[in-house]
Design brief:
Layout (H helix, E strand, L loop, with lengths): L2 H7 L1 H12 L16 H16 L3 E5 L3 E6 L5 E7 L18 E2 L2 E3 L7 H17 L6 E7 L7 H9 L5 E4 L2 E2 L3 E4 L1 E10 L8 E8 L5 E2 L2 E8 L1 H18 L3 E6 L2 E7 L3 E2 L9 H10 L7 H12 L14 E2 L3 E2 L1 E10 L2 E10 L5 H12 L5 E8 L2 E2 L5 H14 L7 E3 L11 E3 L2 E2 L13 E3 H19 L1
Helix pairs in contact: 1-11, 2-4, 4-11, 7-8, 10-11
Length: about 475
């Protein structure tokens, strides 16, 4: 099977299709008739279904929640779970995040690596199998999800209408493959405040972050301030930078001052790679010492219980295990306006722990402080032992293609579609030693890797379906 030559003949199509898909700004939005996650997500789903049909596959639209492309025959089905939705672009891009530009052999754009580039790679891998004429004993089905980044509800709907496939993979993490994923908890903490609006400095609003599963790159605060306090505020900003190295930008307009902190965007599963702009801002706001405002008490609670740490150690035990490492905590969103104060946190806990233990610690600290706590999302951990046949087959394909016999299966804090069905493992597309760019600014996939993973996925599907 000379998949390399076949894939090379589709080179221009693969690039163009990836660019076209990236250009669709498929961030989850409000439902419209027949479009459960908004018009753009539906447009992205229709794009891949139409492409699949042109490539010669049988397609099905599952009421706008998901879609499928299928090839081959047999009583068993090998599946690939991909997703066409993306997280918001955030800030700090060099190139337009929805243009699919190519610079220096890199195809840039939100979704290039997570998960639009791999989605196109899987489709052309299936096309290469079809063109090769290789005989398979099982069907192959690609399932397109539309809300992987915000709750897996589309795949749940899919499973209510269609039978799950027997085994497969999702191209939505790292190579060689992901043998385990930490548990995830998403919580919104809310508090109704009794504000004192008579002070010389008053916090009018706080807003920051783009999504709970992203380390926020910005946080903005609007202050109402009397003239005699403006020089004091300027001094505090300068001292804050000198003492802690964090810069706060300030813009004054009459008696209003807008403050902005800048962070470094990263995936919430690896908050240590980012810099949380919300936590920086909350740390600064405590320096204002607005003691007569109830909000100040909750700024202090934030700094005491969460602060600049990324593991929740200040209110939880030091949760950690040998398999999956430490627990992580990311405050991805904050909103304070008038009397309402809300923060949303993303927690990834080690495989050997139970969610109940983490939830108990959360409630102990924050319910006692008067917060209403709402669980928005929860996923249990998953783990595949080394002797699992699916793991062994995918490792065989990876080693044959890369000659990498050193790297072992890894455990991550990210959530992939591997959790959505049994016998699904996250397999690529990021190679060992490469920067993980999912959810970060200037996300890209190299053209070399785009073609390389297409070949790997073709061989993996044959290995599973032969």
């Amino acid at each position: 099977m000379d998949f390399e030559a076949i894939i090379e003949s589709y080179r221009d199509e693969i690039v163009r299709s990836t660019q076209d898909l990236i250009k669709i700004k498929s961030i989850k939005a409000g439902a419209e008739p027949g479009m459960p996650y908004g018009r753009a997500s539906y447009e992205a789903l229709q794009y891949v279904l139409n492409l699949s049909e042109r490539l010669g596959f049988q397609v099905k639209d599952i009421d706008g929640y998901a879609g499928t492309a299928e090839f081959g025959e047999g009583s068993e089905t090998i599946g690939v779970l991909v997703h066409v939705d993306v997280v918001p672009e955030g800030e700090g891009w060099t190139f337009s995040p929805f243009s699919g530009e190519i610079h220096g052999g890199k195809l840039y754009g939100r979704g290039a690596i997570d998960d639009k580039g791999p989605t196109i790679a899987v489709l052309y891998a299936l096309k290469a199998i079809q063109a090769s004429g290789v005989k398979l004993n099982k069907k192959i089905r690609v399932v397109f999800g539309t809300d992987e980044e915000s709750g897996f509800e589309g795949i749940k709907y899919y499973l209510s209408k269609e039978k799950a496939f027997d085994m497969g993979f999702t191209p939505d993490a790292q190579f060689p493959l992901i043998s385990g994923e930490k548990g995830i908890l998403l919580y919104k903490l809310s508090k109704r405040l009794k504000r004192n609006t008579a002070g010389a400095i008053q916090i009018k609003s706080i807003s920051g972050g783009s999504a709970p599963n992203m380390v926020p790159g910005f946080c903005k605060v609007v202050l109402r301030i009397e003239d005699e306090k403006k020089s004091e505020l300027e001094d505090l900003i300068n001292q804050f930078k000198q003492h802690y190295g964090f810069e706060i930008a300030a813009e004054a307009k009459e008696n209003l001052v807008t403050l902005k902190s800048s962070g470094r965007v990263a995936h919430a599963s690896t908050p240590e790679e980012g810099l949380n702009a919300i936590s920086i801002m909350m740390f600064f706001l405590e320096q204002l010492q607005i003691e007569d405002d109830e909000l100040f008490e909750h700024i202090r609670i934030y700094n005491d219980k969460i602060g600049l740490l990324d593991n929740g150690k200040s209110f939880c035990a030091n949760y950690c295990d040998e398999i999956s490492g430490k627990m992580t905590l990311n405050v991805g969103l904050i909103e304070m306006n008038e009397n309402n104060y809300n923060i949303t946190m993303d927690i990834r806990y080690p495989i050997s722990y139970q969610a109940e233990e983490i939830v108990k610690a959360l409630h102990h600290e924050f319910t006692a402080a008067g917060y209403h706590m709402e669980q928005l999302f929860a996923l249990d951990p998953i783990f595949f032992p080394e002797e699992h046949s699916l793991l062994q087959k995918l490792m065989k394909v990876y080693k044959n293609n890369t000659k990498d016999y050193e790297n072992k299966p890894i455990v991550i804090g990210g959530a992939t579609y591997a959790r959505a069905m049994k016998n699904v493992i996250a397999f690529g597309p990021v190679f060992p030693g490469e920067i993980e760019l999912a959810h970060k600014s200037d996300e890209y996939i190299t053209l070399e890797n785009l073609f390389k993973i297409t070949k790997i996925y073709a061989e993996a599907l044959v290995e599973l379906a032969k």
